[in-house]
Specification:
By secondary structure, the protein is mostly helical. Helix content is 63%, strand content 0%. The chain is globular and about 45 Å long.
Length: 260
């Protein structure tokens, strides 16, 4: 688990400020690396294992975030370096790209959405920031519990009001860099809905352009729940992680095994 978000982050990392509008690219290109999407996804996993309270997420995010100086947004970077434990009303897509652990940790959609709100609101307490995290977590949970794409689409549209009836072909020519949840999460879900397998989902997301590492992290997190991750991609993704991050990943997956 968590491989989908990390893979999308790593694959999309080199295209964030050099967008491509095609699915034809080397999956793990030269200079690919993990970014804040991977670090914060693992921080949420650590926070869950430590109790899942707001302070648990704050402590884990600051511990791992200060350890890895990656491409954080300006407001988040300020929060990370400060002693503050208060949120700053962000509507950014960071709440959605890091939420996947909660969708694997809980047994009901209701608990999943509640936990998504909790882990989002420690920084992203704006309505849109919470909604983006909850919609992403709901899609992951529904995919991993066997719901169809049609069921996921219908639920997310009705529950969260996102327009998922557009196509990638319609979106791609006009899509630009957007760090908001409302300008990222619907597109990421559509990239999953149009996919045929895990790799195709990642390629769909990156091909839209925009904030590619975060877009692909969100898409990848849903795609993993629906399709699983091929062994060769899993091995390659994990090879990018430094030991402290790998330790959290392994511990979280061991915890999930115990909970089965």
């Amino acid at each position: 688990m968590l491989l989908g978000a990390m893979t999308g982050d790593i694959v999309g990392s080199i295209y964030e400020f050099d967008n491509i509008k095609t699915k034809d690219f080397e999956l793990f290109g030269e200079d690919c690396e993990f970014t804040d999407d991977t670090v914060m996804t693992l921080a949420i996993a650590e926070g869950l294992m430590n109790g899942g309270r707001p302070i648990d997420y704050v402590v884990a995010m600051k511990r791992l975030g200060r350890m890895y100086n990656t491409s954080y947004g300006e407001n988040f970077r300020y929060w990370l370096r400060s002693e503050s434990t208060e949120p700053y009303n962000s509507w950014g897509n960071g709440s959605a790209m890091r939420v996947s652990p909660v969708a694997w940790f809980f047994d009901t959609l209701e608990l999943t959405e509640k936990a998504a709100q909790t882990c989002a609101a420690v920084t992203h307490n704006h309505f849109e920031g919470i909604k983006g995290a909850q919609a992403t977590a709901a899609a992951i949970f529904m995919a991993r519990t066997g719901k169809s794409k049609a069921e996921i689409k219908e639920y997310v549209e009705k529950r969260f009001g996102y327009n998922l009836s557009r196509t990638l072909k319609q979106i791609r020519p006009y899509y630009e860099f957007d760090v908001s949840c409302q300008g990222t999460v619907p597109e990421a879900i559509i990239a999953f809905l149009e996919s045929v397998d895990f790799e195709d989902a990642i390629r769909n997301a990156v091909s839209l352009g925009g904030d590619t590492d975060t877009l692909a992290a969100i898409t990848g997190s849903i795609a993993e729940a629906a399709y699983g991750v091929p062994d060769d991609i899993k091995e390659k993704t994990l090879s990018y992680l430094e030991q402290p991050l790998l330790d959290v990943y392994n511990k979280f997956n061991a915890e999930l095994e115990k909970r089965k």
